[in-house]
Design brief:
By secondary structure, the chain is an alpha/beta fold. The protein has three domains: about 140 residues, Nucleotidyltransferase, domain 5 (2-Layer Sandwich); about 90 residues; about 45 residues, no CATH class. The protein is about 55% helix and about 10% strand. The protein is built from twelve helices and six strands. Strands 1, 2, 3, 4, 5 and 6 form a six-stranded mixed β-sheet that branches. Helix 1 packs across helix 10. It is globular. The model has no long low-confidence stretch (mean pLDDT about 95).
Length: about 300
């Protein structure tokens, strides 16, 4: 595996170039263990980050969980929008790079309310009423987004959505002004107020989702893997894992059969004296329709010589 890793490095670099050509990304990160000792670092906890555009899922393994990671990944990009949670690294990144707008995830806000209802049963009716408001928000945004994508007039839907958002803001302020509001509920609404600009940035972007589920789904295979085999035994193997997650999950975005693609790519490497081939025929966004259709099909089964199927 270490010997073939260099074969995929040009593909990984091409994925990064394509990622940087986008204008909107979903971003998230999860812990990943790398069982090596590094001077100046305590423990083996690293982080696997994902940045996903419409065309690419790009994973980065890094020892830190700081704003330096998105700054490096999106280096030389003038700006855009990032769907993310409320983690501080994204906030710092946006402060350092004012051309970027953060779209905070409403699914996380909903999750906070459900956790409040679970931890404080006496507040459950209050929290679930807010959950219902968020459900209305998702429904209205979905209607507006569908109209926008279909090229239909959506002015009335837009006005209705904005009115609902204003009603939610008024409800929040009225609750915070109530001296009898329990402290856990006040803490949650204070956080909502502090992040309101990011939570409502979708209003001027009807094509964007209200949640960051794209990135969370992209990290799911890594999370399942981590629970089964904990992480990586070396730094090079961790980097290879990030590289292969990037390749395979990007293929998935394009509905390319991974076995078909890998078979064709490794065969091309072998025919090129064990070096990476011309990438034009292996990057989905550069392929013609016929090539893309061929790589989307399942590979034909070849019976090994001298073996029977029975």
């Amino acid at each position: 595996m270490q010997a073939i890793a260099p074969l995929f490095e040009p593909v990984y670099e091409a994925l990064l170039d394509e990622l940087r050509a986008g204008a909107h990304w979903h971003a998230d990160e999860t812990r990943w263990e790398v069982f090596v000792d590094i001077e100046g670092k305590r423990g083996h906890r690293w982080y696997l980050w994902v940045f996903q555009s419409r065309a690419v899922a790009y994973y980065v393994l890094d020892a830190s969980r700081s704003a330096a990671v998105p700054s490096a990944v999106l280096a030389e990009v003038d700006g855009g929008t990032i769907s993310c949670d409320r983690y501080g690294a994204y906030k710092k990144f946006a402060r350092l790079h004012p051309g970027f707008t953060l779209l905070y995830c409403w699914a996380h806000q909903r999750r906070d309310l459900l956790m409040l209802a679970n931890d404080y049963p006496q507040l459950a009716p209050w929290a679930l009423a807010w959950v219902e408001c968020i459900g209305v928000l998702f429904a209205l945004h979905a209607q507006r987004r569908e109209a926008w994508l279909a090229g239909r007039e959506y002015g009335e839907l837009d006005r209705g959505l904005r009115a609902t958002v204003q009603e939610m803001a008024d409800k929040r302020e009225a609750a915070l002004a109530d001296p009898t509001l329990p402290a856990p509920a006040a803490k949650l609404l204070t956080s909502m107020r502090r992040h309101w600009a990011g939570l409502t940035a979708f209003l001027d972007r009807p094509q964007r989702a209200l949640d960051n589920n794209e990135a969370e789904r992209a990290l799911r295979p890594a999370v399942v893997g981590r629970k089964n085999f904990y992480g990586s035994g070396s730094q090079w193997s961790g980097q290879l894992a990030a590289m292969m997650f990037s390749v395979l999950m990007s293929l998935r975005l394009w509905q390319v059969n991974p076995r078909t693609w890998l078979s064709a790519y490794l065969q091309a490497c072998a025919e090129n004296a064990n070096r990476p081939p011309d990438l034009a025929g292996f990057l989905p966004w550069r392929m013609d329709a016929a090539r893309l259709a061929a790589l989307r099909s399942a590979p034909a089964f070849t019976q090994p010589p001298g073996q029977s199927l029975t």
